[in-house]
Amino acid sequence: MSATLERGLAALRAGMDTPMATFFASCVHCGLCAEACLFYTETGDPKYTPIHKLEPLRRLWKQEFTLLGKLMVNIGLDQPVSDAELAEWEPLVYDSCTLCGRCSLACPAGNDITAMIRKMREGMALSGHAPEDLVHATQRAVTLGSPMGVKLSTLKAKIRAQERESGLTIPLDQPGVDYMVLFSGMEIVQFSEILGAMARIFKHAGVSWTLSSEAFEATNSGIQLGVSDLAKEILLRTVNAAEKLGVKGVVSPECGHAYTALRWEGPNLIGRRYHFEVVHILELLARLQKEKRLRLRQRDPEERPLSFHDPCQLARRGGVLEEPRELLGKIATDFREMSDNRERNWCCGGGGGVSAIERSEPLRAKAFQRKLHQIEELGVHTLVTACSNCRIILEEGLETYQIRVDVAGLTELVADHLEEDQPQTGAGAAGGES
Amino acid sequence: MNDPGYELLLWVRGPGWILALAVFSFGMAMRLFEIFALGRREDLAPPRPAERQGSPMRTVWNRFFPVPGLFERAPATHVSGYLFHIGFFAVLFFAEFHIQLFRHLLGFGWPALSAPLADALGVVAIVALLAALVSRMRDPVKRFLSTAGDYLAWALTFLPLLTGWMAYHHVLVSYTRMVALHLLAAELLLALLPFTKLIHAVTIFVARWYTGEQFGRKGVQA
Ligand code: SF4
Ligand code: SF4
Predict the structure, then answer these.
(1) Does residue A154 share a domain with residue A27?
(2) Which letter does DSSP use for residue A94 in this model?
(3) Which of A19, A126, B139, B166 could bond A7 through an S-S bridge, CB–CB 3.0 to 4.6 Å?
(4) How far apart are CA B34 and CA A65, in angstroms?
């Protein structure tokens, strides 16, 4: 057995716990998880059945963690998991799973299939069976600080440009403020208006904030790749920077995976709780809105209908469900919910690192049809979302199928609908001047 | 006295029953040990405030019903699944003969379904199980996933239903012999349950709870 295979299998063994054994024992092969997965519904190929993506892991569990399975191997009725088998599963574990969590919501046995796939990636990556694109993205994240290779100098240039445009300062490395704000590399490169938008919102609501030159990238590709050691290294940069600056909270930006990585996986990666709170930007905005520190105006009634695409990691896997509705409720004049929304949304097809895997593009385009149907059904002209990765995938997909729907980020939409004239009364207004 | 059916009946009512029960108990204890000995790590991420959390107990209950849209995508799986389970458990726990057996074993009983109704429910379960088999062999996903274990589990469930119905209607062989075969089939089912996917009868509740808890702490009712 090769050393890499042994490392991979060891990682799989390390991930074995009571829930996973319960899940494997409970599967009745009813096939319903397939019906919940966009990679099956849009291709009709049974190999994309979620539980099947775990077959090598199930075999390992059976052979090493059940008496009957051990017996079977001993008398030669079952073969141990091999390198070739893992290689064969690579496209199933990575290219065709966005870790969207929909299968986990549908399985009648109650299996959290997504959590198992996340764990399976640990073994796949260490045994050398992860897509190169993801490996390189993670290497860039570790060495350069960002999977897209966004450097501090790039960020600084964008900050200057946005400061000029907004006429506001965008603070860097300011200790003792309320929030340290992170961005995804995608936002910095593709949607840098978000920097100015944040500056306007925080000025309006009287929130003190800063960026950190040591940790500005929010995403953690180590998690999507499935190497916890690297994920931890990437995460610690943020944790250390935030604790050094002494901020009350860290704001996770419009990126679904960044949020689950920081909010839900992070403390488990580093083995302790943080000394700060993690909030998603939408949670913060909804909170400010409730406190009346954020005053929003309605869109022009003439403006065309819009809908909201729930990023999987934010909604189903993150628990940020009502906040976008609370915000859109103040802004939109004609808001239309999708047929499956909130925790039941359908993935755009680009999560879980899939968007970084170039070879998966044709499959992704196919899987996107699920979202396309949902959008077309609504007859909207604008689709709002809160994840820059979703945003790119949605734009690409709509373009591929030549559908004319604009895609917008909710934070920017909020920034564009701030009430201009500040009321003269109330503590909120005073705060707004700071 | 020389009726081989009678001798078989004596065996299945005595040693056979004890053996089945012993294998079941040992198997169940072993399987549950295999699962629970693994343990799990504490989740260090602070959960949502209590009032925003989803309830794991509700997940345990919710998963008896499909998420919206799922039924339409797989009607055969749902209909055969529901009808089989309803028919099977109704007959198992509410047919007159079985209640007599439970009264004998437990010392108390409960009201039975009327004989024609129990009979009808048994037929429903049989037909549903046959439909489930056809669906398993024809549906692309289920055929793809199925292993020998799935067909074994199917047969283990089907035989007690079939022999029970045949005994009740005095089909084919003598009543005594059929009852003996029925008991044998039931004992096989009991003994092998822990070692097949039929163990889901117990483990799904644990699985649902874990998943419900994972979703719930994040503020999602799964
Ligand atoms: S839905 Fe659940 S029980 Fe059914 S095949 Fe998938 S994992 Fe197994
Ligand atoms: S997590 Fe989503 S993409 Fe992955 S297998 Fe489940 S339903 Fe499919």
Answers:
(1) no
(2) I
(3) A126
(4) 7
> Domain B5-217 belongs to what topology?
Fumarate Reductase Cytochrome B subunit (1.20.950)
Structural domain including A75 reads 3-130
Looking at residue B2, its pLDDT comes to: 57
Given this model, what pLDDT does residue A421 score?
Answer: 58
Classify A307 as helix, strand or coil: strand
Q: Which of A18, A41, A273 sits opposite B36 (nearest CB)?
A: A18
- Residue A431 to residue A313: CA distance in whole angstroms: 33
Span A381-398, pLDDT tens digits: 999 999 999 999 999 999
Closest CA to A50 of A104, A130, A123: A104
Distance in Å, alpha carbon of B177 to nearest chain A alpha carbon:
33
DSSP labels, A232-301: HHHHHHHHHHHHHHT-SEEEE-S-HHHHIIIIIIHHHHHTS--SSEEEEHHHHHHHHHHTTSS-B-PPPT
* pLDDT tens track for A87-120: 999 999 999 999 999 999 999 999 999 999 999 9
Same domain, A160 and A260: yes
* Total domains in the fold of chain A: 3
pLDDT at A304: 86
Instruction: List the A179-181 sheet strands across, edge first.
Output: A209-210, A179-181, A249-252, A277-280
SS3 A306: strand
Q: How far is CA A383 from CA A314, A370, A417, in A?
A: 16, 15, 16
pLDDT at position A184 over 70: yes
Do residue A168 and residue A224 come from a single domain?
yes
| Global confidence as pTM | 0.94
A170 C-alpha vs ligand 1 centroid, how far in Å?
A: 49
Please indicate, yes or no, if residue A337 is contained in any of the structural domains.
Answer: yes
